[in-house]
Inverse folding.
């Protein structure tokens, strides 16, 4: 018979009244922490601290390890603060002291996730590598699958698309072995992200569609929201703004319904970028600024940078050059500190666009050329198109109209052939109205 959390808490309260040493068993407090963990984190932490204190005094390192693990496994879904890292490091040390290799692997996975959220991709990759090794040593295929898939996210963010693809392909048979349909959905979604960055929009759409079928079948709203967001990105790239809005709003609705504030904020940033293309830059500014503030409070560095990029773009679209300049300068610390290669290049691109609006527009050319070169090097097709458009716009602005027309004609043709309708349309408009 399965007890509800409320029933479990009532049972534990009764156990506390047993005579010593039964009523003082640290496992009672550890179980109480587990019962509270998804309902009231403050109460869960209080119970966990008591369990750790008792287990330490009673010489039970396994209980100490398991209790720290309860807190650590919840921390990545709450925030990526310094406190979260400290809790999970304590959990890791406890698992090492208890000689629990599976627990060690789990703690390394959770630490890797927190480092990823903080934008420390080097630490994240190191932790994921160690977690995969430990999970394989103990034969935990579920752990191997999850760690490989999450490790792929880190490599993807670092700009190593080939390694990310390899890791995803390695994780598929592991997910299949444990019949983890959610994991399969995650892999298809991540493959969609990878194909989109590579400029293969049809392959990306196919991967997202495969993921959506499974996600809806198993009624996984979080996974469905991720897939819908990816589909919205593809629609935006293709220039279908109506479909993009539909997909983004569907994703936001699912995330809001589930109370996932962080992911809902991610959806609002996507909608902000879309609103700029729709000609609603004031709305985009408001949405991006709100998300930026939320990510700052939650210490989600890369998400904050992404929101800052959207905010700067919205300000430029309204002709607010001064404010855009201030936001760019404020975000430079995040841009320089980010280990997310794609995001860092996006920030450099928007910084160049701020320069293009200044009295020293020509100073943007070296930066744009550098971003364009790196986009080509790492296979970021969409970003490559965007920098080529910016270089052509700059040529028009600096009285090199003939050169700009050649660039724009080539860009329009290339973007059209790859299905990037939005960029192709912008290139055409710039040719017509330089």
């Amino acid at each position: 018979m399965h007890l509800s959390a409320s029933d479990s808490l009532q049972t534990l309260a009764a156990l506390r009244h047993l005579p010593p040493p039964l009523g003082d068993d640290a496992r009672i407090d550890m179980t109480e922490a587990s019962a509270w963990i998804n309902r009231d984190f403050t109460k869960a932490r209080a119970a966990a601290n008591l369990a750790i204190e008792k287990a330490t005094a009673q010489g039970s390192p396994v209980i100490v390890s398991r209790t720290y693990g309860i807190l650590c496994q919840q921390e990545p879904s709450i925030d990526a603060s310094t406190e979260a890292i400290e809790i999970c490091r304590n959990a890791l040390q406890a698992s090492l002291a208890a000689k629990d290799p599976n627990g060690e692997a789990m703690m390394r996975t959770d630490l890797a996730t927190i480092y990823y959220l903080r934008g420390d991709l080097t630490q994240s990759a190191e932790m994921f590598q160690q977690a995969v090794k430990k999970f394989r040593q103990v034969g935990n295929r579920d752990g191997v699958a999850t760690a490989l898939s999450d490790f792929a996210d880190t490599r993807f963010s670092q700009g190593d698309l080939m390694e990310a693809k390899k890791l995803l392909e390695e994780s598929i048979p592991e997910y299949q072995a444990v019949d983890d349909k959610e994991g399969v959905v995650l892999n298809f979604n991540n493959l969609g992200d990878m194909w989109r960055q590579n400029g293969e929009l049809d392959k990306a759409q196919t991967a997202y569609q495969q993921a959506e079928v499974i996600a809806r079948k198993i009624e996984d709203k979080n996974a469905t929201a991720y897939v819908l967001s990816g589909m919205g990105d593809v629609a935006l790239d293709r220039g279908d703004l109506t479909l993009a809005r539909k997909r983004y709003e569907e994703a936001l609705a699912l995330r809001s319904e589930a109370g996932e504030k962080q992911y809902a904020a991610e959806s609002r940033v996507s909608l902000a970028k879309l609103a700029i293309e729709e000609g609603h830059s004031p709305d985009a500014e408001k949405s991006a600024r709100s998300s930026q503030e939320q990510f700052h409070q939650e210490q989600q560095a890369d998400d904050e940078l992404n929101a800052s990029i959207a905010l700067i773009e919205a300000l430029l679209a309204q002709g607010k050059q001064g404010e855009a300049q201030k936001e760019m300068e404020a975000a430079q610390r995040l841009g320089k500190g980010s280990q997310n290669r794609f995001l860092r290049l996006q920030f450099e691109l928007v910084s160049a666009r701020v320069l293009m609006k200044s009295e020293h527009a020509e100073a943007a050319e070296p930066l744009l050329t550098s971003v364009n070169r790196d986009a080509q090097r790492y296979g970021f097709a969409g970003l490559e198109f965007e920098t080529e458009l910016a270089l052509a716009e700059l040529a028009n602005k600096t009285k090199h109209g003939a050169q700009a027309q050649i660039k724009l004609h080539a860009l329009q043709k290339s973007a059209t052939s790859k299905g990037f309708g939005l960029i192709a349309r912008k290139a055409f408009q710039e040719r017509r109205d330089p």
Q: What stands out?
A: The domain at 8-131 is CATH 1.25.40.10 (Serine Threonine Protein Phosphatase 5, Tetratricopeptide repeat). Residues 101-118 form the longest helix (18 residues).
